[in-house]
Each structure stands twice: as structure tokens, then as C-alpha cells.
Please model this.
Amino acid sequence: MSGTPREIQLLKYKDDGSFDLDVVALQSVLNRDDVKDLPVVLFSVAGPFRTGKSFLLNYFLRYLHSPVFKGEKGDNAKPLGEDSEPLGGFTWRGGSERNTVGLLIWSEPIIKTLENGDKVAVLLMDTQGLFDSKTTMRDCSIIFALSTLLSSVQVYNLKENLQENHLQFLQLFTQYAKAADNGEELKSFQNLLFLIRDWSYYDTHPYGSKGGDSLVAKRFEVTKDLSTDMVELRAQITSSFQKISGFLLPHPGFNVLKPQFDGRLSDLEENFKTYLLELVTLLFSPSNLVPKKINGQTIRAKELSTHFNVFLELFKSNETPTISSMTKAISDISLQTAVNDARELYENTVNSKFGVDQLSAPTEAIRFSHTQAIEAAKALYNSKKKMGSADELVARLDNLVKELDEILPQTLLMNETKVRKLNSEAQKIYADEVKKVHGENLLCLHPTDLESVHNEAVQKTVEFFDSRRQKFADFEDQARVVLIENLKKKLTDLNHENEGNTRIFISEAVLTYSKAMETLLSKEYAVEDDEFLLKHQKFSKDATDDFVSKRNQPSDYEEDEFKQTLIKKISDKFILLEKINKQHNREAFKAAYSMYEDSMNELWSGNSCCYSKGDLKGIHKRKKDIALFYFHPHKSVNDDFQKQLLSGKIDSLYKDHVETNDLRNRRAERNALNEYQRRMDDLISPKPTWALIVPWIITLAKRRSYHEDCKYYAIRYFRNERCGSSKYDEDSYYDDLIWSINRSYDTNYAL
Ligand SMILES: Nc1nc2c(ncn2[C@@H]2O[C@H](COP(=O)(O)OP(=O)(O)OP(=O)(O)O)[C@@H](O)[C@H]2O)c(=O)[nH]1
Ligand SMILES: [Mg+2]
Model:
């Protein structure tokens, strides 16, 4: 119950004037968490209308909220409140017209710890006054009966005196009491206090409890002048209540009649205030805070509404409740209470272990706990004091067990939902653990590392599962077993994913390698085979290193099937590329050789062209260098076997050219010598003029100069045949020519 404390109407009135219990309103007071399980001490004030009941209850409230009641005695403790404070609480007013209607309960139970440490919930109930002109006797009786049946202390509020008719009004309930006592001599009702207001015969019976008790004793005294009915009435009343007492209050003073009277303490007579304090002190003394019992069972707050309802329905359905109907009602309540307690025990046990807020648990453990909780509930039910036939007791228990058995599937279903949620959270933990390793990159690991990652993720996931799961040593956790099995299977998926990604990286590495190698092939000159191999080794290592570095955990394992696959693919690629390169080399070789060959052949384009040996050698050297350069520009002959081959082959071709040149030089020599001899012959051959001896002699004398001239022409002829440089210093062919000419002169022309 929240909000400002206030009175709560417990009866819902219908248009025809009849009424029901407002269960919701009552439960709003009784089912408060800190109250529902406490024994109830209910003080109810009932009696004729306009007798100051509500007014008195408000002073009860003041006392119950005072430091005195709470045990905090101090100098300023004012057990009845402030002097000038208007009296609030239950609605009260002056005048002659009835005020309170129905049954009212104070919304805020007062929790009090008793001397033995037990806590009780103290409740105050106000009732509609009896005997007003508007209410039927039956309704008055029902209200009074409910008040008496449900209260721990029934204050029977009477004005001026305790009269016979007041006792007779109690007779009805004494009959109920008989019905409810179940033959076990339990007094059905608890304390009855006859409270006489405006008592004026204080000289006969003094004010307060002493006079009250003596008045009650006097009224209950069995004297000769009492009729049999009156004697029986007294016997019934005394046998129905566990304690009967009395209290006499003086008149509060005539201020209470004034219209402006607001209930303040200062307007009340001192005497009244004195006895009012005595009354509340006595009434709420620890010994009088008696928990409500029905049929020997202490009633807890949450159970009170059941009793309320059953009694109300009973009174409404019968003109006058019979003993058997009363017995039946009380037995029903006792059975219902036992069933409720047993059900509650089961629910509390099961909820505390498997409720919405609890962790999921193995199914077998739930089944076992359910069976145990049912046994405990049955034991509690059997231990409870109950009324009813043996068959009825068994039937109620059977029904309860059936009802509790129906809870099991719901508990299991709820548990399943929790398990599903837990499983999906666990799967996420596994996925997150794996994700931690590769982040936003593709998963790519050495299979050994992958297995470690998987095992670690499984371990973390199972730890997570265990931390959110109830453990029962006696039961195997099937859900845990299934989870672990499913997690283990994930390694296969992980392997597939890893393999797929690894193959992508392998392809990339092969591509990088191929691009690097193909760049070599695309160059304008061929790459020497060894060089090509060296490059292959370098690029192959780069590609392999790069591939390993792409792994989420680059680690070096001797056994590495993926690395081996990569190396194999690169090797295969290399074999192809090497073939191409070799082909390039062959072509380059051919081209270089042809380049030399063609350019050397051009030397002989003139018909008679010839060279000095030195020139030819120089030309050969230049052309050979060019050819060799174009073959493998970056390799020296010494470092390049193929270049050595090319060089050898060129040198061998050069020999042919040396031969050709030799032949040509020899021919040029011969022709030049012929030229010399032709000219000499022509000069020295006999002429007609030689008839004259002198000219002939002269001719003879001139032979040397002829020789020199003809030699000059012969040399000029030879030089004309020559290509290349015009140096003849170290020219064996030239030297040979000079020698041949000189020899020819000496042999043929000199005298
Ligand atoms: N004579 C007298 N009047 C009192 C006493 N206590 C209170 N009153 C006055 O009685 C009047 C009625 O008080 P309520 O508390 O409303 O009386 P009630 O019994 O609840 O009346 P209903 O609800 O109509 O049954 C008020 O004017 C009170 O001041 C008392 O002890 N003696
Ligand atoms: Mg009233």
C-alpha cells in the first residue's frame, strides 16, 4: 500500500444494499512484502452506533505511532499525541446520525517486534455501528460477526453500561464458536473487551481496567435470579472467548458536544485522558498483542482475506449460519490454508532455484527438485492442523499434487528458454573469441594455431556457460554436453573458413611472385638463366614470407602444408616461366649472333674490299661487343656461360672472316704486283727509238726510278682495294706487297 495512510473500505456495496468483500482493497493492505508473512494482531472496535468508536480508534492510532509504543521512551514522549492537534485518522464526527458504514481497515499495518523477537502486524478495524435505524439487524449481525471472528481483540464498545441485551447480541457468535472449536476445546475467539464509555458509577466499579473487570465479573456472575437461558448464555460466551475483560472510561467532558470540537486532546477532561492512556497502554501491552488464530492456526496477513471472504459468504448465504455450515466453512479454510501453505512452500522452493531470475539448470535437476519440493509440500500439508474427513484431506492433497505437477512443464519450458538464450550468448562468446584473433581481417592461421584458438575459445565459452549455469553434482548437465559437442564441431567450419581464406592468400602470393617474374620476361633483353633462377629464389622467398605475414598469427612451423602448397605452386609457375626465359635466351642468342653475322657480312659488300689484319680484328671486336651486350647487357662473359658460348661462336665465325680477308688481301697483293710488273714491262720493253743505243742506255739507267714509280702505282692500286683505316705501319699484307715488288724488281728488272 502506498500513499498517505488512510481508512480503507472493505465492503463493496451494490445498488440493492447488499455487499461483497473488496478483496483487492484488503489485499492491498495485507499483501505488502514486509507484512504478508507476519502474524496478524487485529484490533476491532464494534458496538452500537454513535458511541465514539472511530474517535477512540484514532487515539489508538496516535498511541501506536508514538515513541512509547515503539519502545523509545523519552521525556517528550506524548503517547496520545500533541495537545492541540486535531484528531485525524478514521472518519468520525459528532451528531446523532450514523457515520461509519461497513468495515474499514487502516491502510498501514504497524509492525511490532514482540519480546520473543517475533514480528507481528498490528491492524485496526472500524465497524459500522449497531442498531442504527437504516441497517437491518442481519447486516448489523454480519458486520459484528466478522469483526469478532477476525479480530484478535474485539473491543465491544458500549455506552454507559453493560446490559443483558448486549450479552444476548453475542449469543449468535457463541454458537459459531462451538462449531469452530472442532471438539478440541480450543476457544474459537480470542480477547473480548467490554469497553463502557461515559461510565458514571465509579463508586461501585472504579474507572479503568479494575472496575471494568469487576463489572464484567458481576455481569457474568451466575446468581439464583438468572433464568436458565441467561446462565447458558454466560456459559457460552465464556467458553467461546479465550479472555474476557472490561474497561470503564469516564465521560470525556462536554466539549465533545460542541460543533467546533475537533478531537484535540486539550479539549478532553483530564480524567478521561488518564483512563484513555491506561486503556491504550493496557490494550497494546505486549501480552495483549496476540496473533490471530483460527482453529489453532496462527493467521498470517496474506491469509486473512481468505477467512474474511469465507465468513462473509457464509453469513450472506444463510439467514442464520448453522453449526454445520460454520464447521464446513472453517474446515474449508483450514484445508485451503494448508493447501496454500504447501503450494507456497513448493513455489518458493522451486522459484528460489528455478524462477525467472535464477540461472538455468539441468533438466534432471529440475525434475528431481520438483519431486523433492512436492514431498516437502505434502509433508507440510500433513503437518498442518486441518478439519475435514479423511477422504477430503486426501482429495485436497491429491489435487494439490496434480496442480503442482502441472507447474513442472512450465518450469521446464522457462528453463529451456533460458538455456536457448544462454546457448546463443555462449555461441557469441565463441565467435567473439575467434574474432579477437583476426579482427576485421580474414581468418588465416596455421592449422596448429587455428586449433589452439579454437580450443581457447571453447574453454572460454564453456567457462562462460558454467558461470551462468547452476551446478548439481549428482546430475550430468546434458545442455553442457551438447554445447561442448557443438562447439567441437565448429573446428570443422573454422577449418573450412581458414582454408578458403588461406587459399586466397596463396593465390595472391603466387600472383605477386608471377608479376615480379614476368617483369623480368618483359624486359627488352633476356635474363641469363642463373640470374633468372636467383630472381626466382628471391621472389619466391618474398612471396612466401609475405604469405606467412598475412596470417593472423605469423608463426614458423616446420610442417606447413599451406606454405608447401604455395611453394609448389610457385615452383610450377617457375618451370613455365623458366621455359619462356630459356626460349627468350635462345632467341636473344640467335639475334645477337645474327647481329654480328649480318654486320660482319656487310664488310664484304664491296667486290674487292679487304682489311688490314688489325682493322679486321678491331671491327670484329666492336661488333662482337655490341652483340654480346645486346645478349645479356648486365653480365660479363666470365659470369655468363651463355655469353661465353656466344662469344666462342662469334669468334669461330670471325675466323671465316679472317680467312676471307686473307684471300682478298692476297688477291689485292697479286693484282698490285701485276700492276707493278705491267707498268715496269711497259716502260722497259724495247721501243723503236731504242735503235739508238743512247736512249736505251738512258732507259737502263732510269730503271730504278721506273721501279719507284711503278711501285707507287702498285701501292696505290693496293690501297684502293683496301677498306678501313689508311694505316699501314703494321700491315703484314702491305709489307708482303712491298717485299714482292722489290723482289720482282730485283729479280726481273734490275740490271
Ligand atoms: N459522550 C461521549 N462522546 C464521545 C466519546 N468519545 C467521543 N465522543 C463523541 O461522540 C461523537 C461520535 O463519535 P464517533 O467516533 O464518530 O462515533 P462512532 O461510534 O464511530 O459513530 P458511528 O460511526 O456513527 O457508529 C463525536 O462527537 C465524539 O466527539 C465518549 O467517550 N463519550
Ligand atoms: Mg464511526
About this structure: The longest strand covers residues 119-127. The pocket of magnesium ion (ligand 2) is lined by residues 53-54, 92, 99-100, 126 (CB under 6 Å).
